[in-house]
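[agent] plan:
  1. take the single chain provided in the ticket
  2. run structure prediction with default settings
  3. attach structure tokens to the ticket
  4. add a short note for the reviewer (M.T.)
[agent] executing step 1
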Amino acid sequence: MDGLFWSLLTVLGPIVLAAAIGYVLLRRRTLTPREQVASREATRELYDEPEDKDAMTTKPKADPKSAAAASFEAERRRRETQEEELEEGLEDTFPASDPVSVTSSSTSGSPSKDDKNSRRA
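[agent] step 2 finished; step 3 output follows
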């Protein structure tokens, strides 16, 4: 059985390879001068004449923004505003040693007496 497989592979392998090479060579042939002229003319016609002449004369309708596009625009505006505020804060506190934070802390000041007692326990 093993010898049959190798003999089929030895016979059919080169035949399949020759067919593939022949196909590629036939497909990649150069065009005759007449075929080149016909190809150029057809290309010019496609570029010169629109498929739908009415489409060129009518104005395209303005598409309303989708919800995703509107959300994207709002997010972009929010980021720009946040960056402007951060830049302004950096300019206002320039000589200071602590940089401006993008997020704010939840509490300020010293911890309450209850927090101090719970830490000691």
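[agent] step 4 note for reviewer: The first helix runs from residue 2 to 27.
[agent] ticket updated
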